[in-house]
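Section handout, structural biology tutorial.
Before the tutorial, make sure you can parse a SMILES string by hand: atoms, branches in parentheses, ring closures as digits. In the record below the ligand is pyridoxal-5'-phosphate, and the chain has 367 residues. In the tutorial you will relate the predicted structure tokens back to the input. Do not try to memorize them.
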Amino acid sequence: MSTLPSGKPAPLAGIAKLAPYKQGKATLNDVAEPLKLSSNESMLGPSPKALAAYQASGASLHLYPDGSQQALRSAIAEVHGLDEARIVCGNGSDELIQFVIRAYAGPGDDVVLSQYSFAMAFVHTIAQGANAIWVDEPEMKPDVDALLAAVTPKTKMVVLASPNNPVGQYLPRAELLRLQAGLPSHVILLLDSAYADYVVAEDYEAGAALVEASDNVVMTRTFSKLYGLAGLRIGWMYAPEAVVDMVQRIRTPFNANAAALAAAEAAVRDTEHAALARDENNAELARISEALSAVGIDVVPSVANFYLVRFPMKGRDPQGAAAHLEANGIIPRPVNAGGPEASLRISVGRPHQNDRVIAALRDYVNA
Ligand SMILES: Cc1ncc(COP(=O)(O)O)c(C=O)c1O
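Predicted structure of the complex:
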């Protein structure tokens, strides 16, 4: 009789190497309702139509959702002018990023990650037993030449976020096309366009055109930001049919829940609310930048729903600024590890909330 091995259950080596994800701070001692500006959420919130659809979905919670996600896929296709067969919805766009990495990268493969891409892409890469190859963004946006130089015969995928996080800058269309053209056709270009809905720049490309023109580009999008549905966890991807086919094989049948599907469908159709959310965000971003720059704070230009601030003046630093904001009931996100050194990332809020941030940071600098 053979002897069975003994000992503790052994996790996969990649998974054991990882640290659990740390969410942005959400509470402050002694402040009942702090102003949480640490997670790039929408302070405007969802469309009232999305909220109504969410509430109506409560009447059928005993039923499984539509596993084919038909109604939401059709709505997204209609509003964005896309092909519904290439759309898959997920429990947040992070789930879709996970699916694509799981389907295409395995032990020994390389996944090239641009510096300011979403932290979970790294996690899934390592969990798969693949190698994460980090490429710096010295100009604070993806560096096409450096990404192309990092590609080797082992490379399965290149991942970048545009706009990136925590900076909020994007890769212009011409550069994106140059990157795609320079990649071997078997290497997937995973474009995380979580903040695309805020961008109005004419030279911005979220990725749909590249998906349609090639076999190796995947774009992921989310309802967590502009659409204000972060709590429901709903995102979507646009991908070549062969990639969709692979993702369908590992997707759990009801990964997008019924309430999320209903709310997101109403949200994407409410283009008026989306435009309002975008316009207010962008106007506020400009106003905040001007007000903070006027007192000497360095505000990194952003096209997303957050901004990075730094304190070039003597005796002031992000740690002190964070403490001062928190003393005023405001929670920013300090970004040191994995982000630009010594900065604070702050979500854009409603105008009266941004007034509080401006006033607190002015006080901090002038005190
Ligand atoms: C760049 C980027 N990508 C993806 C995500 C994930 O978004 P979600 O999973 O909520 O769709 C985030 C969330 O903050 C993000 O900042």
